[in-house]
Amino acid sequence: MKMSLRIVYLVGLIATILSLFACGGGGAGLPALPDFIPGSVTEPDRDTAMNEIDAYVDTVKGSSNEAQLLVAKLKTIPVFAAAEVTPKGDVVGWFKDGQVYLISLTDEAPTGSFKSTPAVSAPASTAKPMNLTNSKKAYLVNSMEDSRFDLAPTVKPLLQAKGYEVIEMDGTVSDFKSITDAGLLSVHAHGNVFTDNKRVEHFYYSTSEAPTPSSRAAYKTELDNDTLIVGNIEVFDSNNHSSRIRRYGVSESFLFSHGLSFLPGAFWYSQACNSFNPSITKAALGASGAATYAG
Question: Whose CA is closest to 23, among 95, 108, 145?
C-alpha cells in the first residue's frame, strides 16, 4: 500500500500542535493492596457505592484537597477495600472483589480554537508516494465529547485520496475489540494511568460506552482482572460547562488480548492524556504493535 509522506507530516504536525493543549503530563514503591475476594460484592451494592461517591464528587469539586477527600470518602464505604491518588492526580478505588472504580480529576476544558475543524479536500500529490504501510485500513476512533477537536474531518479525505479504507468508530468497547490489520490507528479519547489489582501499571482509554447491568455481566472476566474498568469522567459542552458521566475504560492489555493487530509499517497515534506512558508505548511498539507510535 502506498502512502504519501504528506499525510505522515500532516498527522505529525497536528499531533505536535495538540500536545501544546494536552492535559497532565509500574507500581514500584506503592503500598501493597489487600487480598481481594472474588464474588464478595453484589452488583446492587456496587451500584449503590458508585452512586454515593458520584454524589460526593460534586460536593468537593474545586477543593484544594479534592483528591484526598475522595480517597477518604472511598475508604468509608464498606464495599471498597482500598483507594489512592494516582501519580497523575486521579483517584482510584478497588472494590473488595478487585474491580476498579476510577474518578478522573485531571481532564481540562477544551482550549484554543480546536473544538471543531472543517473537512478538507485532499491536495494533488506533488511527490512520488512511498511504501510506508502494507495495510489499506485506517481506523479513526473518537470517544470524546463533541466539544473536543476531532482529527477525522481533516485526515479522512487525505487518506481516502491515497486509497485507504477509512473506518470511523465511536469508541465503544466493541469498537476497540474489532481493530485488525491496521495501517493507521488514530484514537481520540480521555486517558488515564494507574495500577491494576496486581500492582501492574496500565494505560486506559475511556470509551464512549456507558456501563449497564447486562454489559457488566458480559464483561465480568475483564472487569475482575482490571483490563476493563468503570470510570467517572468529566466532560465539557461547547460552552465549557462540565458534567460527569460513567464510562468503561479499556487498557492496552485489553486491546491486544481482543485481537488488536497491525500490518508492517503501521502508525498508531494516541490523542489522549498520559498516552506517552511506558505501559502503552512498550506495548504499542512491541512484537504485535505498530512500526511507529505517537502519544
Answer: 108
